[in-house]
Amino acid sequence: MIRQSEEPLTPAGRLFIQPETNISVICCLGTHQPLRIDAIKSVIADSVLAKHPRLSSILVVDKTGQEYWKKTEIEMDRHIILHNDPVEGAKDDQDATNILMADLAVSVPFETDKPLWEIHLLVSHKCVVIRAHHALGDGVSLLSFFLAMCRKADDPEKLPTMNSVGVHRRKGGEGAIGGVLWRLLKLVWFTVVFVVDFIARVLWVRDETTVVSGGAGVELWRRKLVTARFLIDDMKIVKKYIPNTVSLSL
Questions:
Q1: Where are the beta strands (DSSP E) in 125-172?
Q2: What is the DSSP letter of 218?
Q3: Which CATH number goes with the domain that contains 80?
Q4: Contact 28/128 with Cβ under 8 angstroms?
Q5: Nearest Cα residue to 13 out of 63, 65, 52, 69
Q6: Is 67 in contact with 61 (CB distance < 8 Å)?
Q7: Is residue 239 domain-resident?
Protein backbone atom coordinates (compact mmCIF):
# COMPACT_ATOMS: atom_id res chain seq x y z
CA MET A 1 0.00 0.00 0.00
CA ILE A 2 1.28 3.48 -0.95
CA ARG A 3 1.47 5.75 2.09
CA GLN A 4 0.87 9.50 2.12
CA SER A 5 4.60 10.28 1.91
CA GLU A 6 4.92 8.07 -1.19
CA GLU A 7 3.92 8.75 -4.78
CA PRO A 8 3.68 6.17 -7.58
CA LEU A 9 5.74 6.78 -10.71
CA THR A 10 3.97 8.12 -13.75
CA PRO A 11 3.88 5.92 -16.89
CA ALA A 12 6.60 8.10 -18.40
CA GLY A 13 8.71 7.80 -15.23
CA ARG A 14 8.40 4.00 -15.30
CA LEU A 15 9.52 4.01 -18.92
CA PHE A 16 12.60 6.13 -18.23
CA ILE A 17 13.86 3.92 -15.38
CA GLN A 18 13.94 0.80 -17.55
CA PRO A 19 17.48 -0.38 -18.40
CA GLU A 20 16.79 0.07 -22.11
CA THR A 21 15.75 3.73 -21.68
CA ASN A 22 17.79 4.82 -18.67
CA ILE A 23 18.33 8.45 -19.65
CA SER A 24 20.00 11.35 -17.87
CA VAL A 25 19.41 15.04 -18.51
CA ILE A 26 22.68 16.98 -18.41
CA CYS A 27 22.99 20.78 -18.40
CA CYS A 28 26.08 22.95 -18.26
CA LEU A 29 26.39 26.48 -16.86
CA GLY A 30 29.53 28.62 -17.06
CA THR A 31 30.60 31.81 -15.33
CA HIS A 32 33.34 34.39 -15.64
CA GLN A 33 33.72 34.57 -11.86
CA PRO A 34 35.23 31.88 -9.59
CA LEU A 35 32.69 29.50 -8.06
CA ARG A 36 31.74 30.38 -4.48
CA ILE A 37 31.19 26.90 -3.08
CA ASP A 38 29.65 27.87 0.27
CA ALA A 39 27.26 30.35 -1.36
CA ILE A 40 26.18 27.76 -3.94
CA LYS A 41 25.46 25.17 -1.25
CA SER A 42 23.52 27.68 0.83
CA VAL A 43 21.37 28.82 -2.10
CA ILE A 44 20.58 25.27 -3.19
CA ALA A 45 19.75 24.16 0.37
CA ASP A 46 17.22 27.00 0.73
CA SER A 47 15.79 26.72 -2.78
CA VAL A 48 12.81 24.93 -4.27
CA LEU A 49 15.24 22.27 -5.47
CA ALA A 50 15.64 20.91 -1.94
CA LYS A 51 11.94 21.29 -1.05
CA HIS A 52 10.14 19.99 -4.13
CA PRO A 53 8.61 16.55 -3.35
CA ARG A 54 9.88 14.91 -6.53
CA LEU A 55 13.42 16.24 -6.17
CA SER A 56 13.63 15.29 -2.48
CA SER A 57 12.42 11.70 -2.87
CA ILE A 58 14.22 8.44 -3.56
CA LEU A 59 13.16 5.79 -6.03
CA VAL A 60 11.88 2.65 -4.29
CA VAL A 61 10.77 -0.68 -5.78
CA ASP A 62 8.71 -2.86 -3.44
CA LYS A 63 8.51 -6.66 -3.35
CA THR A 64 5.74 -6.72 -5.96
CA GLY A 65 7.83 -4.69 -8.40
CA GLN A 66 5.83 -1.48 -7.99
CA GLU A 67 7.93 1.68 -8.27
CA TYR A 68 7.21 4.80 -6.23
CA TRP A 69 8.85 7.95 -4.85
CA LYS A 70 9.52 8.07 -1.10
CA LYS A 71 10.21 11.36 0.70
CA THR A 72 13.62 11.60 2.32
CA GLU A 73 16.07 14.10 3.80
CA ILE A 74 18.58 15.54 1.36
CA GLU A 75 22.25 15.22 2.22
CA MET A 76 23.62 18.18 0.28
CA ASP A 77 27.22 16.93 0.33
CA ARG A 78 26.14 13.82 -1.59
CA HIS A 79 24.51 15.88 -4.32
CA ILE A 80 27.09 18.65 -4.75
CA ILE A 81 30.27 17.04 -6.09
CA LEU A 82 33.47 19.08 -6.21
CA HIS A 83 36.08 18.70 -8.95
CA ASN A 84 38.98 20.80 -7.69
CA ASP A 85 41.58 19.55 -10.17
CA PRO A 86 41.52 20.38 -13.90
CA VAL A 87 39.99 17.71 -16.12
CA GLU A 88 42.77 15.55 -17.51
CA GLY A 89 43.37 15.98 -21.22
CA ALA A 90 41.16 19.08 -21.57
CA LYS A 91 42.40 21.84 -23.87
CA ASP A 92 40.25 24.55 -22.30
CA ASP A 93 37.23 25.06 -20.03
CA GLN A 94 34.76 24.17 -22.77
CA ASP A 95 36.59 20.97 -23.63
CA ALA A 96 36.72 20.08 -19.92
CA THR A 97 32.94 20.26 -19.55
CA ASN A 98 32.45 18.22 -22.74
CA ILE A 99 34.73 15.47 -21.41
CA LEU A 100 32.96 15.36 -18.05
CA MET A 101 29.46 15.37 -19.57
CA ALA A 102 30.40 12.62 -22.02
CA ASP A 103 31.68 10.53 -19.13
CA LEU A 104 28.59 11.16 -17.01
CA ALA A 105 26.27 10.23 -19.88
CA VAL A 106 26.99 6.50 -19.71
CA SER A 107 29.73 5.53 -17.27
CA VAL A 108 28.47 6.72 -13.87
CA PRO A 109 25.03 5.37 -12.81
CA PHE A 110 22.88 7.15 -10.24
CA GLU A 111 22.89 5.93 -6.67
CA THR A 112 19.32 4.93 -5.84
CA ASP A 113 19.65 5.59 -2.10
CA LYS A 114 19.44 9.33 -2.73
CA PRO A 115 17.31 11.59 -4.99
CA LEU A 116 18.30 11.14 -8.63
CA TRP A 117 20.09 14.43 -9.26
CA GLU A 118 23.53 15.88 -8.66
CA ILE A 119 25.53 19.02 -9.32
CA HIS A 120 29.17 18.84 -10.35
CA LEU A 121 31.26 21.94 -9.64
CA LEU A 122 34.35 22.21 -11.83
CA VAL A 123 36.25 24.67 -9.68
CA SER A 124 39.29 25.03 -11.94
CA HIS A 125 37.13 25.61 -15.01
CA LYS A 126 34.45 27.82 -13.38
CA CYS A 127 31.67 25.62 -14.73
CA VAL A 128 28.70 23.77 -13.24
CA VAL A 129 27.39 20.52 -14.70
CA ILE A 130 23.88 19.51 -13.61
CA ARG A 131 22.78 15.92 -14.05
CA ALA A 132 19.33 14.55 -13.27
CA HIS A 133 17.45 11.40 -14.15
CA HIS A 134 14.89 11.80 -16.91
CA ALA A 135 12.26 10.24 -14.62
CA LEU A 136 12.30 13.52 -12.65
CA GLY A 137 11.41 15.64 -15.68
CA ASP A 138 12.65 16.85 -19.03
CA GLY A 139 15.43 19.35 -19.69
CA VAL A 140 13.13 22.37 -19.87
CA SER A 141 11.35 21.71 -16.56
CA LEU A 142 14.57 20.88 -14.72
CA LEU A 143 16.34 23.96 -16.04
CA SER A 144 13.34 26.02 -14.90
CA PHE A 145 13.98 24.80 -11.35
CA PHE A 146 17.55 26.07 -11.46
CA LEU A 147 16.50 29.32 -13.12
CA ALA A 148 14.12 29.88 -10.19
CA MET A 149 17.13 29.86 -7.86
CA CYS A 150 18.80 32.72 -9.74
CA ARG A 151 18.30 36.44 -9.22
CA LYS A 152 18.95 39.51 -11.32
CA ALA A 153 22.40 41.07 -10.91
CA ASP A 154 20.93 44.58 -10.72
CA ASP A 155 18.08 43.56 -8.37
CA PRO A 156 18.77 40.53 -6.14
CA GLU A 157 15.13 40.41 -5.04
CA LYS A 158 13.77 39.69 -8.54
CA LEU A 159 13.84 36.52 -10.61
CA PRO A 160 15.53 36.61 -14.02
CA THR A 161 13.25 37.16 -16.99
CA MET A 162 13.26 35.70 -20.46
CA ASN A 163 12.52 37.72 -23.57
CA SER A 164 9.36 36.64 -25.30
CA VAL A 165 9.46 35.19 -28.78
CA GLY A 166 8.38 37.63 -31.43
CA VAL A 167 5.70 36.12 -33.63
CA HIS A 168 4.93 37.80 -36.93
CA ARG A 169 1.27 37.52 -37.84
CA ARG A 170 0.58 36.59 -41.42
CA LYS A 171 -1.37 38.98 -43.54
CA GLY A 172 -4.65 38.01 -45.11
CA GLY A 173 -7.75 36.30 -43.82
CA GLU A 174 -6.02 34.18 -41.19
CA GLY A 175 -8.42 35.43 -38.52
CA ALA A 176 -11.54 34.60 -40.54
CA ILE A 177 -13.59 31.43 -40.09
CA GLY A 178 -12.34 30.10 -43.41
CA GLY A 179 -8.74 30.54 -42.36
CA VAL A 180 -9.33 28.72 -39.07
CA LEU A 181 -11.06 25.81 -40.82
CA TRP A 182 -8.28 25.62 -43.42
CA ARG A 183 -5.60 25.47 -40.73
CA LEU A 184 -7.56 22.79 -38.87
CA LEU A 185 -7.92 20.74 -42.03
CA LYS A 186 -4.18 20.97 -42.69
CA LEU A 187 -3.47 19.98 -39.09
CA VAL A 188 -5.59 16.84 -39.39
CA TRP A 189 -4.19 15.94 -42.81
CA PHE A 190 -0.51 16.31 -41.89
CA THR A 191 -1.08 14.48 -38.59
CA VAL A 192 -2.47 11.48 -40.47
CA VAL A 193 0.38 11.61 -42.99
CA PHE A 194 3.08 11.78 -40.32
CA VAL A 195 1.51 8.96 -38.27
CA VAL A 196 1.29 6.68 -41.32
CA ASP A 197 4.86 7.58 -42.30
CA PHE A 198 6.11 6.85 -38.78
CA ILE A 199 4.37 3.46 -38.60
CA ALA A 200 5.69 2.51 -42.06
CA ARG A 201 9.26 3.41 -41.08
CA VAL A 202 9.06 1.43 -37.85
CA LEU A 203 7.74 -1.67 -39.64
CA TRP A 204 9.79 -1.72 -42.84
CA VAL A 205 12.71 0.71 -42.85
CA ARG A 206 16.06 -0.43 -41.43
CA ASP A 207 19.46 1.22 -41.48
CA GLU A 208 21.95 -0.46 -43.77
CA THR A 209 24.91 -2.18 -42.13
CA THR A 210 28.13 -0.27 -42.81
CA VAL A 211 31.69 -0.29 -41.51
CA VAL A 212 30.71 2.20 -38.82
CA SER A 213 27.57 0.40 -37.69
CA GLY A 214 27.60 -0.38 -33.98
CA GLY A 215 27.11 -3.86 -32.64
CA ALA A 216 25.43 -5.13 -29.50
CA GLY A 217 26.04 -2.83 -26.53
CA VAL A 218 26.97 0.19 -28.65
CA GLU A 219 24.75 2.35 -26.44
CA LEU A 220 27.22 1.78 -23.57
CA TRP A 221 30.33 2.83 -25.49
CA ARG A 222 32.21 5.87 -24.30
CA ARG A 223 30.76 9.15 -25.55
CA LYS A 224 32.52 12.19 -26.92
CA LEU A 225 30.97 15.66 -26.99
CA VAL A 226 32.00 18.58 -29.17
CA THR A 227 30.70 22.14 -29.15
CA ALA A 228 29.48 23.86 -32.32
CA ARG A 229 29.69 27.63 -32.63
CA PHE A 230 27.38 29.73 -34.80
CA LEU A 231 27.90 33.33 -35.86
CA ILE A 232 24.98 35.68 -35.30
CA ASP A 233 25.48 37.13 -38.80
CA ASP A 234 25.00 33.69 -40.32
CA MET A 235 21.80 33.20 -38.35
CA LYS A 236 20.53 36.57 -39.59
CA ILE A 237 21.18 35.52 -43.20
CA VAL A 238 19.17 32.33 -42.68
CA LYS A 239 16.34 34.29 -41.08
CA LYS A 240 16.38 36.82 -43.93
CA TYR A 241 15.96 34.28 -46.72
CA ILE A 242 13.59 31.83 -44.99
CA PRO A 243 10.09 33.33 -44.63
CA ASN A 244 8.08 33.31 -41.40
CA THR A 245 11.08 32.56 -39.16
CA VAL A 246 11.40 34.01 -35.67
CA SER A 247 14.26 34.28 -33.22
CA LEU A 248 14.41 33.34 -29.55
CA SER A 249 16.69 35.25 -27.20
CA LEU A 250 17.33 34.69 -23.50
A1: 127-133
A2: G
A3: 3.30.559.10
A4: yes
A5: 69
A6: yes
A7: no
